[in-house]
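Deliverable D4.2, example record:
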Amino acid sequence: MSLIKPKRALISVSNKKNLKELVNFLVNQNVKIISTGGTYQAIKKLTNDVQEVSKFTGFEEMMDGRVKTLHPKIHAGILAKRDSDLNILKKKGYKEIDLVIVNLYPFKETIASNCTFEEAIEKIDIGGPAMIRSAAKNFKDVVVISDPNDYSRLVEEWKNQDGISYEFRKELSQKVFQLMADYNLSISNYMKEISVNYHQYDFEKSVSLRYGENPHQSANLLTFSNLEHKNIANAEMLQGKELSYNNIVDADAAWECVRAFNKPACVIVKHANPCGVAETNSVYEAYDLAFKTDPTSAFGGIIALNRTLDTKTATEINTRQFTEVVIATDYEKDALVELNKKKNIRVLKVDLEQDDPYPGFIKKVSGGILIQNDDTYAVSKEELKCVTKREPTPDELNDLMFAWRVAKFVKSNAIVYAKNKQTIGIGAGQMSRAISADIANLKAKEEGLEVKGSAMASDAFFPFRDGIDKAASSGITSIIQPGGSIRDEEVIAAADENDIAMVFTATRHFRH
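Output generated by the structure prediction step:
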């Protein structure tokens, strides 16, 4: 496709950014300029080579300027196909408009300023969208600019090629339709008064990742705009290589889990599952206990701490294991010096308080998407229902609550063994709950950890008594689970036979 050199431009902008440089360039290129309202006044201060739209159309503005560009002379000049419609324009005495430079009334900015409903409605642009849609549709013959940041690109391309290329015109057209999709959706959501409905969010930036979950998949990280806190997506990266797709997924899983605890806690994640968790009185002890749960899986894992990382713990991490990412709320100066000895470790600083700009979780399915609210429900001790003859001791109850918090972040079917607020064994992602228990036992045995006297959490109910019998044979003395199986009585009887204290939560935590 050939280059085009616009001869007539229509400019109507609410954002006057970079307008002077653009107008001066167009005047130098002998481009005839027509303009509206405030934009006309601004351009008139720069040059006399500008014509008001009402003079161009022969139709005076009305209704406080709300009707001025909705005129056949404007839209025919934009929409005319240069290879077939010029004779129609000539018969009517109309002129071609080759360049449309319009940005819209700032609707989003207006509603963000606690405006009245009437003020918001007045900022719904009508003429602007009509003009840029016309120009975007006819990009074969017309250049359309909807973003002031593209002025410099327009000037550069025009200078370098003595015209505007088809490829650039097409790119600018696509930006218009993306803009209109976002603009219209923001109005729609506002008119619904931002109810519980799911709606569009703005993104501040998009980062291209090296690849996705696998090397043959491409991936990007989009970051929500207007975040108040340092979250995983916009964490302060203090050192290390760029984050990969899998790093980000695992980091999010680790950070989500470690934030569930009030005392100093450490979570080590591998393949989106916690492999070691501990909550205690110091960061060092929390890391030590979390690592001891499963040192094999911890290799190459993600370490998250809900406190400042001290130098002693940083030294221990470097001594004990290879890790991909370390996440903490802050770092002692010498701790950063220590971590820097392994320059490839990604070190992230994240706020304990997080933004929640998105209303839930999205999963793609064939032909559509599933959307659900986040699983934020946390059962309290008072809500637990003891269903066995023996009630849990205070220590058992503390371990049950700890294990239940961890189980929420383990892929289903999930089984968590815990003792003294340390995970002893974790079984994740199995089709059978009994097999998940076998894995938890295996992990504990591999590391020489004592299962006897531990608490067990199951993310969903036990459909058969075999899981209870297996737990008893391993030395489990207390169990927390949702309940609700048609065989609950059989499961409760199994617990009583083995002197196990069991509590029901009446809520489950499936995580697929």
